Amino acid sequence: MAKDKIFLNDQFNQKVEKDLLAHLLPNKKVGNIFIFVLLAFILVGIYAYYRQLRYGLIVTSMRDYTSWGVYISNFVFLVAISLVGSLFSSILKLSKATWSTPLTRISEIIAIAAIICASVIIIVDMGRPDRFINVLIHGRIQSPIIWDVIIITTYLTISVLLLYISLIPDLAICRDKLTDAPGWKKWFYKVFSINWHGTPEQNNILHKVSFMLSVMVIPVAFAIHTVTSWLFSTTWRPGWDSTNLGPYFVSGALMAGAAVIIVAMYFIRNALNIKEYLTDKLFDHMGKLLVLLSLVYLYFNINEYLGPAFKMVGVEGEHIIELFFGKYASMYWLVQVFGLVLPIVVLVFAWGRKPLPMLIISILVLLGAWFKRFLIVIPSLQHPYLPIQDVDESYRHYIPSWEEWAITFASFAGCLLIITFLVKLLPVIPIWETKKEEGNEPKQQEV
Amino acid sequence: MENKEKKQSRRKFFFKTATAALGTIGAVGIVTQSCKEPVEEGETVSLLSPDGTLVEVDKANISMAKMPAQVKEARAGIPNKKFVMVIDLARCRNARKCVTNCQKMHDLEPGDEWIKVFLMQDSNDTAPYWFPKPCFHCNQPPCVKVCPVGATYKRTDGLVLVDNERCIGCKFCMTACPYSSRVFQWKDPVHESQADHDYSPETSVPHQVGTVGKCDFCPDMARMGKLPTCVTGCPNGVIFFGDKNEDIVTNGTESFRFSELVYERAGYHFMAELGTEPNVYYLPPVDRLFDYETGFKTLTSEQKEFYEKSIVKKH
């Protein structure tokens, strides 16, 4: 009996290895077309940035009043997306939600890609990127920008470590099994699996380290988005001058993170043909999680707007009117209805938590999340205490220029390119955790 | 002995290569220029070289350099001064000479204004009035707080200046300033006159692309004992400038005790509730010299319409 079980286990484990390693071997051409498209977007973005370096920030639509534009709102969006890493490899892991195990690696990969692109985009927004070194030479710890630089580098470091530590046993499997892989890949697996053989001692160290990291990443992850919110809430601007901004940003980020995972799951399971591992049941779990996170975000949204909307004081009131009924009203209500209310309504039903509806809802959530950050950054700047008088017409409006859009799209393409590269290089589902946890029952564990 | 020799050799060195050596001295604020007026040769003058050695140089070979304050000086401030500005709203008719003078002095492009004139109205029942607004040079400046590299800074004489050679162009100060006083150099500066002298935070020119500028209270003029250009330009004597320590402000023709002026005329801070403690005081627009309508004379009908549309209710 026991022997049978071991045999079945072995059989199952072999199948897991075969399925989950398949995408690491050179394969379909479809992937290459995708990569070329991404590279094309990046090239256009680089050309736009070249123009910006050549002619100055005049090529953007930013002017003295709207001095932060889509670069900053996109930066906030990408930082928000990066929070997803901590959600899966820490919050869900520590709360023993074992159903989320197949998603940890995807989430860590997305987190790293997003944080790298966020760092790039913040440099793109600078008027003098050539003087970035001044941040190190003359950095003033009093400035929230310095806090952001510190916390982003810390979070990136911990995220890379989190990804890497949990990868070691899988890299060892790659090293042992992927004998057909190209030479550089074999070399990579050999070097980075740092002589892993799964001895009890090694396992012990691995568990300790990954536990420590997953505890450490929580405050850092909360800090990264809270500090980003402080870039705004430390000023007097209407809509930013709010104590609610930290949790408002963090909850919005976790919601957008869950949505991005659902989109990634959908495409990865189809592209890599691993529906057995990214099951419909998993989508169901993610749907429930997204509803929960959306409700939390809804709460902070109400909290954010009700006070100023009730009081309607001065520029705060003007700002609220602009959002609710003014020139940003259609964007505002589309975002709130399709990006926040609709997901809650649809995903509470079981039929809404099937893969395809989930995909559509998640894309809406992501679009909503991106435009929501636009609505947080730009209208506030257009309602200063002293009104916009005696200036050129172009100072009163803000519609991003093609250069800004090109760079924004290039940042998404860059993000996707990093993800694609890592997915082609690393086992996208943690093999050793799948093997160990599921034993001979290829079924998701319930929470 | 050895020291003496060293000194002598150094002296020789300076005499022999006066031009090149004085180039070094230029690092502390003096540069050589070709002798413009005939000066008798043979007369020498003692100068302190950058390494602390006293040297003698032929007078014929030196001339006072027209150098703006160097960065170190410009960061410290003018000793024993506390600059303050008082703006008498009763006298302003939007003549806009403060704006154009400032633009001329600081090589600003037509759209860029370091001092602006707003049309304000305190409530529906009260009359509108013109409101010139420079940088307030706050004692609790939000822009200085947020600057990540210390490119914008507060000096002992109360001024808030920007070092355009350090500014990284993050624009955080622009979002932090509640009075929208800051202007970004979005493109390459085009003015010819900017090549005339080296950059100093006190002159704020030449501008540098991708950095932030703003009203600097003309400290280069103050060093020469002159008034800021907006003060001298105003035909109605709206703007008073002075020193809090001396307790005197002047618009060039009239002088007042600062403390008496703001006390008797009920001087106030614009939006004092923000706690930024500006160094610009306003005198309320009572007993006005002009009807606010006269301010539209210099404007096109389009500008007038826009002003009226966006008239400011003070919050």
Describe the structure.
The complex is a heterodimer of chains A (447) and B (315). Helices cover 72% and strands 0% of the residues of chain A. The two termini of chain A are 28 Å apart. Chain A has helices spanning 2-21, 30-55, 70-82, 84-94, 104-124, 133-137, 144-177, 183-192, 200-233, 245-271, 280-311, 314-324, 329-347, 355-381, 402-425, 431-438. Chain A has a single domain, classed as Formate dehydrogenase/DMSO reductase fold (Up-down Bundle). In chain A, α11 packs across α12 (314-324). In chain B, 23% of the residues lie in helices and 17% in strands. In chain B, the strands form 5 sheets. Chain B has a 5-stranded mixed β-sheet. In chain B, strands 5-4-14 form a 3-stranded mixed β-sheet, with no helix packed on it. Chain B is globular. Mean pLDDT of chain B is 83; it is low at 12-37.
Main-sheet strand order of chain B equals 12-11-10-3-13
Overall tally of structural domains of chain A: 1
| Order of SSEs of chain B | HHEEHEHEEHEEHEEHHEEEHEHE
Look at the structure and give the mean pLDDT of chain A: 91
**Total number of beta strands of chain B:** 14
Please state the structural category of chain B. alpha+beta
Globally, the shape of chain A reads globular
Radius of gyration of chain B: 23 Å
Count structural domains of chain B. 2
Low-confidence stretches of chain A: 438-447
Strand-residue proportion of chain A: under 5%
For the record, what is the CATH homologous superfamily label of chain A? Formate dehydrogenase/DMSO reductase domain
Q: Which second-level CATH architecture of the largest domain in chain B applies? A: 2-Layer Sandwich
